[in-house]
Amino acid sequence: MKTCWLHQQGNQDCLLFMAGWGMCPEPFQDIPSGGTDVLMAYDYRDMDTGGITSFLRSNTYRKYKTYKRLHLLAWSMGVWTASMLSRHDELFDSRLTTAIAIGGTCHPIHDKLGIPEHNFTDMTKRLSPTRLEAFQRSMFSDEQEANRFTASFGKGERSFEEVHQELLALATAYTTYTTYTTDKVQPNVPNIYTSRIVTGRDQIFQARNQVRAWGRKKCRTLSLSHFPFYHWPSWSAMIEELKS
């Protein structure tokens, strides 16, 4: 697991952003902070959470003062991955002011509660640079936003091989930490979220599966595509809307 500061200006608020599979910092770097520091976690080829756990425990980083408020925004496969962090830090969720899940669930590989298992397995076996690009474009319903993402992602240093390895690693990790029974699947990760946002126009995590995973009365559906981040003018504006 890698981390990268998207914004580090000594603000009183800090956002821990747990990105989805196959991401790199570049598509997110031009989103203004709006007055919050933003630490991004990505590249889940390994689940070494030591860096993030240490950061949360100290609630400080280098010369900056302790943050008054820590927010979590977990997206896509990052929703499950963030919950994994709590297995390594029993006080994980208590350190957070808000914990928001968007466009993902704690059951990321599941026919009714996440991405259908056949679709996920097919992706791991048949992924190619062309299919990866098609997947990325399917995260959007707006062509202009898709082009913006593609242009910035192309500036990153992640190779196709890295991204494919990450997909395989996530599949293995999910299987390792999931208990299978005859009638249901129980994820061995807690639901740590104070706000659960369903992306209503999602072509990756179907909206109905997200609703089933969280419970209709425990989530909120917004008319957003899977990659929703260009919808807001800043990170702080995003958090302000999603946490309520």
Give me some keywords for this one:
8 helices, 244 residues, 18% strand, two-stranded antiparallel sheet, alpha/beta, seven-stranded mixed sheet
CATH third-tier fold name = Rossmann fold
Q: Count helical runs.
A: 8
Radius of gyration: 17 Å
Strand content: 15-25%
Q: Which architecture would the CATH scheme give at its second level?
A: 3-Layer(aba) Sandwich
Residue runs with pLDDT of under 50 for 5 or more positions: 60-64
Run of helices and strands: EEEHEHEHHHHEEEHEH
| CATH homologous group name | Alpha/Beta hydrolase fold, catalytic domain
Assigned CATH class: Alpha Beta
SS content category: alpha/beta
Structure, explained:
The protein has a single domain (2-243), classed as Rossmann fold (3-Layer(aba) Sandwich). Residues 60-64 have low confidence and may be disordered. It contains eight helices and nine strands. Strand 4, helix 2 (77-88) and strand 5 (98-102) form a beta-alpha-beta unit. 35% of the residues lie in helices and 18% in strands. It has helices spanning 50-58, 77-88, 117-126, 129-137, 143-153, 160-176, 207-214, 235-243; strands at residues 2-7, 13-18, 37-42, 69-75, 98-102, 178-180, 185-187, 195-199, 220-222. 38% of the residues are buried. The chain is of the alpha/beta class and 244 residues long. It has a seven-stranded mixed β-sheet with strand order 1-3-2-4-5-8-9, with helices on both faces. The chain starts with a strand and ends with a helix. This is Biotin synthesis protein BioG. It is an enzyme of class 3 (hydrolase). GO terms for molecular function: pimelyl-[acyl-carrier protein] methyl ester esterase activity.
